[in-house]
Amino acid sequence: MTNATFFARSYADARAKLYQTARDTGGRVLHPRVMDGVRAADGDELATDAIWYGPPAARSLVVITSGTHGVEGFAGSGAQQALAHAAGSLLAGNDTAIVLVHAINPHGFSNLRRVNEHNVDLNRNFIDFDKPLPSSPSYEAWHRLLAPGDWRGAARAATESRLTELVAEQGALAVQAAAAGGQYAFPNGLFYGGTGPAWSNRTWRGILADLCRTASRIVHVDIHTGLGPYGYGELVYTGGFDHPAHARAIKGLSSVGLRTMGELGSNCHQVGGTMNQAVLDLEGRCEVVSVTLEYGTVTFDRLLHALGADNWLHAHDGPELAEAGAIAQTMLDAFYPDDLAWRDSVISRFAEVAGSLVAMPTSSMRD
């Protein structure tokens, strides 16, 4: 079996591969979370699925999530497929189980979008909505540039040119910090965090609550694509510095290049409201670590071009527009390169990280 066989052509294909792999490798399918009233374009159901590998009564869990940002789920699903085939040998002699949580955002995965069915960026949605919503004056100043009302012809060329100039002038990390940190004022804009917990937020928290009923330790990684050097997976801690998980992550994962989001040398600027927060919120009920693995694809200005085009498309008539196919391909090019060498890098880097994650419950998380 080659690495290429782990990667899918569509959400439906990825889900079918997940279930076939579970049958072939002895995975135990947990209760699927099916979206109610939301279907794929072909009418198929959309769901977040979970597969368990290892001892049924394991108290230490390694949890791998994919598809928080929809279209980025192709890489995460491929990594999960590869890990499923290696789980038996990786877990041998360990009182540890691996849980693969597939397609946190199935609607975005199915529709080749980064956001969910309500244009919500799920990695900005895990905030306390009982408090005043955060403001983002820098995003507000750039909203019309980032989410333009016209994405055709000369207007598109001018917008893309200005975005490229902006990133060149200020640097990718500065633009990330100013524009991509999350905003709650423009429901039709980029990086929109929503007005309350989304379906995927509630579903992920429900899965974690179920796991934490029997587990005493949860080590988690969420797989993303887009930022950083092409083909490299940067492992990043995204929570608060004062959380006990930060010290545990540094102790257990520094050997595989862990960085803290926003620190010098990281390609990921600090953002709030990531899905990792749901894991960190379990502290006191479980001992936890939660990190993100981010694979580089294209330059940051090209990511913004793709996201702006996708946003424009769905703010209008979506799939009915003539540009729909080309824009969908732009999203794939930005977040799921059609390059075997890139996909090989996803698998090889993930194997390195997964080995360290499995080792943490018995060796690195003990204080």
Care to describe what's here?
- With 367 residues, the protein is an alpha/beta fold.
- It has two domains: 245 residues, Aminopeptidase, CATH 3.40.630.10; 88 residues, no CATH class.
- The chain is built from twelve helices and nine strands.
- Strands 1, 2, 3, 4, 5, 6, 7, 8 and 9 form a nine-stranded mixed β-sheet that branches.
- Strand 2 and strand 3 form a beta hairpin.
- The protein is globular.
- The mean pLDDT is 93.
Briefly summarize what is shown.
The chain contains 12 helices and 9 strands. It has helices at residues 11-25, 73-91, 106-110, 137-146, 153-170, 172-179, 199-212, 244-253, 276-280, 300-315, 324-335, 340-364; strands at residues 28-29, 33-39, 45-53, 60-65, 96-102, 217-230, 233-237, 259-260, 287-296.
Keywords:
alpha/beta; Aminopeptidase; 2 domains; 43% helix
Global morphology = globular
Poorly predicted tracts of residues: none
CATH superfamily of the largest domain: Zn peptidases
Secondary-structure class: alpha/beta
Largest sheet: 9 strands, mixed
CATH level 1 name of the largest domain? Alpha Beta
Name the helicity range.
40-55%
How large a portion of the residues is in β-strands, by DSSP E?
15-25%
End-to-end C-alpha gap: 40 Å
Oligomer: single chain
Number of helices: 12
What CATH calls the topology of the largest domain is: Aminopeptidase
